[in-house]
Structures are given as structure tokens and as C-alpha cells.
Amino acid sequence: MPPALPHHRRSGRPSQRGAALLLLLAVAGVGAATLLVSALGGPRSDAARERQTLVVMGQAKEALIGYALHHGRLPRPAISATNGQESPLPCASESSCTGFLPWVTLGVSAQDGWGKLLHYSVSPDFTQWPIMTSAAVGGKRVLTRLDSGALAFLAGQPECSLRAQCVPAVLLSTGRYNLGTSPQGIAQSNGAQGNVDEIQNNSGFNDFISRRASSDPARPGGEFDDLVTWIPLRLLYLRMSASGQLR
User: Fold this and answer.
1) Is 29 within the bounds of a domain?
2) pTM above 0.85?
3) Domain check: are 92 and 20 in the same one?
4) Based on the structure, what is the number of domains in the chain?
5) Can you tell me the distance from the alpha carbon of 117 to that of 149, in angstroms, rounded to the nearest whole number?
6) Are strands 207-209 and 141-145 parallel, antiparallel or unpaired?
7) Claim to verify: residue 17 and residue 71 sit in the same structural domain
8) Has residue 2 been placed in a domain?
């Protein structure tokens, strides 16, 4: 910032005053441009993008439950990476009920903080109206990896059944690095080796991994920066029951 003029030099030649005014306008313009770039998605830290992703995923989770409260079922995945409407085709299996969040149908953001599409996997029984609580089985499991390398369940258990329910639906962000799909439908290549947990999330339809981020390829499970959340069955049933949408 240029030093202030002494008080006894309050006036000057017109050219000097004009130059000072132009400098002030230029500085103001740079500040405004900086604010504009920031508002339009300028450079941000990974921590900020992660916070944004968690907010977007939280909104998507609420939208999914809200859809169930209105329609009596959870939506199927999107038609494709470039069409965010819910697929009109019934899900015949856990794999065919795995794809991208139907963002247009739900009226939410399609992307995480890194501009990748959110993945969505839902058990077929919960996409049929009405959901029959006497028969519907949530088939998704969420695991974490212990420091020893062993896997442990965060949600669900080895066998999913009517008496031992797992999770009806899972949401996934593939994070900044490795794998994932752009809004144009372009799959990002895997830039790592040995990142088996990320590969599992990107291609799986029953089991999903949620663990601490790591850039260490030697860590059990390899590099990892995915974010995972899910809809607990008890929460879904409680809210659907309160809205009169369960039989």
C-alpha cells in the first residue's frame, strides 16, 4: 500500500490526483475480482472442499428420506451420469440398483466438492412401493479398516436378513484423487496402486469402506480419500411411520 501523503500536501497537480484515483480504482478492482473468483469457485483448500462435500451429502441424505416420506419408497439411481432423473427401470438386483444419485429427481446437487458425481446404491426392496416391512431386506454393509488391516463393520453384519438388517442405502464421494466420474460422464483413471478400498467403493454394490483419509500407499487398504454416509434403517422406518408411509 502506498504511504499516505503528509497533511500539508493535501493538494497537488491534477495529473497527480488523477493518477492516485486510478491507482485506488485499480486496487478496488483487484479486490472485487478476487471476491468474484472466490464466489464462483476459486482456489479452495481440500478441507473446504471436504466440508462442502459433507454438506452436499447431508442434503442428499435428507432429500432421499424426504422422497420416501412423499412416495413411500426410496428412489432408484439416476438414468446415467448425464441424466439425473430417476431410472424408470425397476431394480432387479443390488448391482442394478447402484449408480449415481438421481439429483434432478431429488432437486439437490449432483457433485461433491471436487466436481465429481455422487454415487448412490440402494437395496431393491426399498425402491418398490409400498415398502413391505415384513419382507424388505437392506443389503448394504459399511466397513472400516483397523490399524491392523482387518475390516470391521460400521453398519450391518456378515449376513443381511429380515432379522439381522443391514443398510438400505449408501452415498459415496470418491474424493479428490483416484477414480470417480465427471458430470460429463468421463471416468477418472486410477492414479494409485494398491488402493483396494477405493477400488472396492468405486465398483462395489454391497460392501463399502469408510475410513480415515491417507496418502500412504503402504497403509492397509492403500491410499484413501473417499467419503461415505448411509441411511440407517431404523431412522428411515421411524420417519416413514410418522408420515403414515409404512405397511
Assistant:
1) yes
2) no
3) no
4) 2
5) 29
6) parallel
7) no
8) no
What is the residue whose three cell numbers read 457433485? 111
Distance CA 206, CA 157 (A): 11
Sequence-distant (6+) residues with CB within 8 A of 157 are 141, 164, 166
Q: Is the model's pLDDT at 174 over the cut of 80? A: yes
DSSP string, 83-96: EEEEPSSPP-STTT
- Are 24 and 90 part of one and the same domain? no
Judge residue 95's burial from the number of C-beta atoms within 10 Å of its C-beta, 0-12 exposed, 13-18 middle, 19 or more buried.
middle
Q: Are 21 and 132 in the same domain?
A: no
**Could you check whether the bond before residue 130 is cis, i.e. omega within 30 degrees of 0?**
yes
Q: Which amino acid is at 107?
A: G
What is the structure's pLDDT at 43?
58
Domain that holds residue 18: 13-39
Express each pLDDT in 138-173 by its tens digit: 999 999 999 999 999 999 999 999 999 999 999 999
Structural contact between residues 225 and 157, judged by C-beta atoms closer than 8 angstroms: no
My answer on whether 32 and 51 are in the same domain is: no
- Pair 62, 178 in one domain: yes
Region 122-135: mean pLDDT is 97
Same-domain check for residues 25 and 69: no
Residue 102 neighbours by CB under 8 Å, 6+ apart: 75, 76, 77, 78, 79, 84, 85, 86, 87, 120
Residues 182-225 pLDDT 10s: 999 999 999 999 999 999 999 999 999 999 999 999 999 999 99
Q: Are residues 114 and 178 in the same domain?
A: yes
